[in-house]
Amino acid sequence: MHTFESHIRSVPDFPKPGIIFKDISPLLAERFPEVIEAMSQGIDWDSIDLVIGIESRGFILGAAMAQLKGKGFVPMRKKGKLPPRVIAESYSLEYGTDTLEMIVNEKPARVVLVDDVLATGGTLRAAMKLCTNNNYDVKAMALLINLTFLNKFKEEGLPVLATLNY
Predict the structure, then answer these.
(1) pTM reported for the whole predicted model
(2) DSSP letters along 138-166, please?
(3) What integer pLDDT is reported at residue 95 of this predicted model?
(4) CATH for 4-76+105-165, among 3.40.50.2020, 3.10.180.10, 3.30.9.10, 3.50.50.60?
């Protein structure tokens, strides 16, 4: 049994008043291999071709999961960070709006989406839509933390695998 919670720092009023930021930096510094192993559980890796990591902490977690499981890795970036041709999806989040982009993909693939924290769900919903519109079939979503009190993913029947639930 892992005790990851004690290594996560809650930072009040960041990045704006009213938001409690979950800082996973101490956890990654002290328990990184265990975190990646835990996040990789519950996924049918035989049905996965690629791991897609959502910028920016999803890069760290997703790339390590891809390495562990012998899969390729694809970055999903914020607007303007990838060379053309890209496909984009804009979304709202608890403290503003943003846009995710991916390089245009012609070859269908089965993927797992990886990110650090699921809060209201705007980023993850946009990532799912972006994948669907870019020939990627999302088979699983792996998260380090799911702030269940802020989203309805479970009630909507969406397949979220979270290592920690708050």
Answers:
(1) 0.93
(2) EEEEEEEEE-GGG--TTTTT--EEEEEE-
(3) 66
(4) 3.40.50.2020
